[in-house]
Every structure is written in structure tokens, then in C-alpha cells.
């Protein structure tokens, strides 16, 4: 009985609030489901190979010069505005990082998505390794031959991975 009441209360609250859980769109899942069947490479490699930042900062196709956001609105299955926004954020970050994770971290570690979502968490604003309890942000400054700017970029990217997973 209590269980049924709790479930009913949760459903009612979620319906009234628009459910915060439904608002997180995982751009990796969108890419893997909608894009990867045709663009069979990692989304970072794909974005760096096919897109550039235009004069206004918006992403455009390297060959066409057309806005990627506008193209996606009419591409393969009409993705929602939330999915487009999530993909654009991911592509922009991947261009900004320039393959840094792949070059410096991918030698030893799995994908950034997997590393962050399986091993990391943010507690009291600190990025930590859930297995060792280590402060990952501090560790990045002495790990992997990263300079200070690279360590901050990787830290931001790992935190973003957690955010897009809804954590």
C-alpha cells in the first residue's frame, strides 16, 4: 500500500513539475542512436572532421559553410529541439577540446564518457574518483603530461560528461 502511494505521489509530482528527469538529453545516446548508423565514427572525430566554428561562433559544415543547427532540424527523423541543442553542445565542446582527451588520455583510458560515468562523481563541487576517493581535479595537474590549461579543459569535459548523464 505504501509503495503504491509513493509511486502515485511521484507520478503526480513529476507530471506537475515537468519532471526534471525528462529534461536531460544525453547527446551521446542521441548520436549513437540517430547519427552513428550512417556516421560510424566517434562523434568527436566526426565533429572535428566535418565542422568548424563560423564567424559568429555557431558551428557550420566545413565543406558547405551551412549552419549545422539548421541542417539538423531537417536531418534524419526530425530530432527534437532538445536533441539538437544537446548535439550542438557536444559538437562544440568536442571542437573546443580538439581531441585532447583522445591524444593524452585515450592511450590508457576508455572513452571520456565511460570513464566519467563509471568512475567519477562530483561531491561538494569536487570531481572525485568513486573507487579511490581521489580528487581528480588536483590529480589532473600531475597526471598524463597535461599542462594547466589542458588539465582545466579535461576537468570541464569530464564534469560535462556527468552533467549530460543527469548527474
Question: Can you walk through the features of this model?
Answer:
This protein has ten helices and four strands; from the N terminus they run H-H-H-H-E-E-H-H-H-H-E-E-H-H. The chain has 167 residues and is mainly alpha-helical. The chain has two domains: 76 residues, no CATH class; 69 residues, no CATH class. The strands form two sheets. It has a two-stranded antiparallel sheet with strand order 1-2. Helix 3 crosses helix 6. The chain is globular, with a radius of gyration of 19 Å.
SSE diagram, text form:
Layout: H1 2-17, H2 20-23, H3 27-35, H4 43-50, E1 51-53, E2 59-61, H5 68-72, H6 81-97, H7 100-105, H8 112-119, E3 120-123, E4 126-129, H9 136-140, H10 148-164
Helix pairs in contact: 3-6, 4-6, 8-10
